[in-house]
Prior knowledge:
Blueprint: H1 8-11, H2 18-21, H3 28-39, H4 41-44, E1 50-56, H5 66-80, E2 84-91, E3 94-100, H6 102-109, H7 112-119
Antiparallel strand pairs: 1-3, 2-3
Amino acid sequence: xxxxxxxxxxxxxxxxxxxxxxxxxxxxxxxxxxxxxxxxxxxxxxxxxxxxxxxxxxxxxxxxxxxxxxxxxxxxxxxxxxxxxxxxxxxxxxxxxxxxxxxxxxxxxxxxxxxxxxxxx
Length: 121
């Protein structure tokens, strides 16, 4: 998978969005892997323990339908990833994917203040 390199859009203060880099990935599987890495970048970099990613069953502006590609390649991508993941909800028109770093999530859930907050009604 190609690494996204710094370009003029980053130096102008423009925060990248998926469409800025989507054309770099013509293969469906690589495109989905790159999209998931883009959406879970804060998890991969250790800033957050998890990410929720919605995959609607429609063609994106880049021409790909990630819902369909997930159905074909999703489980293999997760197995090959540094992250773990599961589909939390699947509806006829979309699915909600939960990607997480097990160690970071477990550490967070071991914190007393987090446990106290989750235990509140």
